[in-house]
Amino acid sequence: MITNAGSDGHSALLTLFNASWEACKLPSKWKEATIIPIPKPKDPGAMRPISLLSCVGKTMERIVLNRLTWAVGPLHQDLFAYRRGMGTAECLSTLLCAASSGGTTVAFLDLEKAFELANCRVILSLLVRKGVCGRLLIWLKDFLSGRAARVALQGETSQLHQHENGTPQGSILRPLPV
Q1: Angle CA(115)–CA(75)–CA(55) in degrees, nearest 5?
Q2: Residue 112's Cα: distance from chain center in Å?
Q3: Quick one: where's region Disordered (predicted)?
Q4: More confident: 150 or 3
Q5: Rounded to an integer, what distance in angstroms lies between the CA atom of residue 150 and that of residue 156?
Q6: Which residues contact 50 (CB under 8 A, 6 or more apart)?
Q7: Looking at the predicted structure, is the pLDDT value of residue 50 above 80?
Q8: DSSP code for 86
Q9: Are 1 and 55 within 8 A, CB to CB?
């Protein structure tokens, strides 16, 4: 959709992105998610939420992620999730290499609802400690605040519900480099 917008469409998007950056504010529609519950294959009673976000908003997030990565540096080399080209195979390969050299201790953690329950004030404080400041910090503060979601299930859609904490599922900025 965005790729096919043509030069006039791209100019309009650039104007919108620049306005968001200058004002350190996101349009409220960019902060809204539609959650589609998908049954888990091994437990049909349990649902996996799939969050649909604004494509235009996610494009702006990609721009901000580039600025954020420049400000704080890339994610740690031992973090495999959320890094392009770094998946399970690379993680296992690194682990096996470390184990073959002897004396390796491994701890596996699965934190339930870690992103949903993350405290936004703590995230922002950690970003400040990493040197994030000015317009970037203010934009990220607005990005994390005033988020809302609705659930769409079997042709029905709920009202929007506000979220106080957490980073938005489906967001490019969800794993903020803190």
Answers
A1: 60
A2: 17
A3: 159-178
A4: 150
A5: 10
A6: 35, 36, 37, 38, 170
A7: yes
A8: B
A9: yes
pTM of this structure: 0.83
Helices within the chain (DSSP H only): 6-23, 55-72, 88-100, 120-129, 134-144
44, 48, 76 from 64: Cα distances, Å = 37, 28, 19
Closest CA to 28 of 160, 133, 124, 122: 160
Answer for the pair 25, 142: CB distance below 8 angstroms, yes or no. Answer: yes
The residue with tokens 């605040």 is 145
What three-state secondary structure class fits 43? strand
148, two tokens: 């809302």
CB 165 within 8 A of CB 119: yes
In this structure, the chain runs to a length of: 178
At residue 177 the predicted structure's pLDDT band, cuts being 50, 70 and 90, is: low
Token representation of residue 177: 């480099």
What is the enclosing helix (H) or strand (E) of 146?
A: none
| Domain range annotation of the chain | 3-75+113-163
Place of tokens 């965005």: 2
In Å, what is the CA distance from 120 to each residue of 18, 71, 145, 147, 152?
24, 19, 8, 11, 26
